[in-house]
Structures are given as C-alpha cells and as structure tokens.
Amino acid sequence: MLLWFLNNNKGIKIYEMTPERARQSAGKLSEKMEVFYEYPAIKMSKINDLNIKGRNGAIPIRIYQPTTEDNLPVIVYFHGGGFVFNDIESHDKVCRRIARDNNAVVVSVEYRLAPEHKFPKGLHDAYDATCWVAENAKNINADSKKLIVMGDSAGGNLAAVVCSMARDLKGPNISYQVLIYPCTDATLNSPSIDQFAKGFLLEKKMIEWFTQHYISKPEDIYNPLMSPVFAKDFSSLPPAFILTGACDPLKDEAVKYAKLLGDAGNQVTHKDYEGLIHGFIGLPRLSNKILLAYQDIQEHLSKNLVLKNS
Question: Is residue 1 situated within a structural domain?
C-alpha cells in the first residue's frame, strides 16, 4: 500500500523540490501514512532531551532509558534521511523499540543536515556525540564498555565512519556496529542502484538529489569519510551486523562494504531481507520480516556483549 500510494502521488517528487519544501512534503506524507506502517509508541522509564557541546555548536540528543537499571548497554543512534531529512522526532518510535528490545540506553543524535550544513559537519556531530556518550555513560545509567553505534541509511553511513574515526583518532572504544541499509558509496555505481532505480520508495534520482546537497565539492564522493568503501584500511574495526532489503538500491554497496570488512579480518554478519524495501526499519506494520530484523539485531548484540564479558 505504501508503494502504491507513493507511486501514484504525483506531488511527491522531492528531487524536483527545494530541501525546505521537500522536508515539508515528506513530513506531511509521513503523518498521513503512519497509521498504516507504525505501531503506537513504546513506553520508556525515562526520556530526556539535551543539547550537548560539539565542535560546530550545540547538538540535540534524546536519551531513552527503558528501565531504571544501571550499567546498561548504550546505543548511539543516527537517523536516516539522505543527510537532508529527518530528526529525533522522525525516529522516535524506532529508538523506543530498539531501547526496549535490547534493554539498552539509546541516545538519538540530531546531527546537522545538508544543504545548510554540508559534509563533513553532520559527521562531526555524529563523532562528537559518540565521544560525549562514552564520557558520560555513567550519568545516563549506561556502561561505556558496552558502546554500540547504529544507524539506518545515511545514519548507517555515519555509524560506519564513526567507527573508523574512533580507531584512527584513538577515540571511544566501540563494541559493535549495526548498519541498517547503509549508504557506503556516493559514486552510485553499484548495480542495484539501477536495478531498483524507480518504484521502490528510494529512487535513483532521489539519491542523486541527496548526494548533491550533501557534498561540499565534487571530489567528496571519493572521500572515505563520505564513501567508506574507499577507505585504505579496514582492519581493527568493531564487529558488525549489516542489514539490507532485497529491493533496496543501496543493497549492493552495503554488501560490498560487508565483504571489505570481512576480508580485513573483522567479524561481520550480513543479512538480506527478502521482499523488503529501503526504509523498512521504520515500517514495522508492513511485514513480519521487519520485526524479525529488530529481533536479529537484539540477538546479535546480546551474543556479542556476552562474548565480550565472558
């Protein structure tokens, strides 16, 4: 139903709009369709909104605490939206479910968006927020030794790059990374980009539109901090669980990144979900496979954290 609605709604062609108008149109569509693709918000023990200090100014974060327990795992979550859309509110229900399922504190990061703040300002916010969480974990009932980064789409890109930055800058010790249909290659040369170029929610023209708004200069698309598949060193990165949808234009570049991680000796698991489209993590009512994906994340994190502490 969602695909039918989008493919028959002539007003939703964001690549023909300004970012401001596109955000407004996408927000209205999301409100209209939410009853069909999301469940009611899961209750938390405590939710707290803060502004923390980053190198480019204040960074809004939202902290989800599912219980009153101490020393919980902490997940830093970066929302998707092509580096142009979305915020803490758009992924509120996603973060609640992740917090509940994993009995973990979730810190959702509202990084700066393009084109007002082009690459790498949003990435700087993501890394600075991760450092803040590592330094302040105890104050939010979390254990910095169980630090996980997670994100979907553009957020998956940020999570992946934050891991390499943490390694190279001797920053936070990240225990695990969960990359949900991440964008990892801004050159858009993967076969699945053309295979699913139109009719599967995220379209090739939309990806091109997002990319052009995000880059500061054309050569940015080859920068490993934007396109992590071009990194020179894939070694010594956190264990990874990479999820893709079988009908997602970003599928092949995510698979490529998983292979690069594995070939470098990292622990990596990739799972492809048959029949699912880009954006599925925020569409749990559309398919039981989406709730299975949440379960798979929980199982991977639980197993990894048990192994690390045994």
Answer: no
**Which CATH number does the domain housing residue 300 bear?**
3.40.50.1820
pTM greater than 0.70 (yes/no): yes
Catalytic residues: 153, 248, 278
Structural domain of 274: 32-309
pLDDT tens profile 156-181:
999 999 999 999 999 999 999 999 99
Tell me: the pLDDT tens digits for 238-259? 999 999 999 999 999 999 999 9
Evaluate whether residue 19 is within a structural domain.
no
Q: What token pair was written down for 271?
A: 């799972």
Instruction: Give 29: exposed, middle or buried? Use CB within 10 Å, 0-12, 13-18, 19+.
Output: middle
* 27 occurs within a structural domain: no
| Number of domains into which the chain is organized | 1
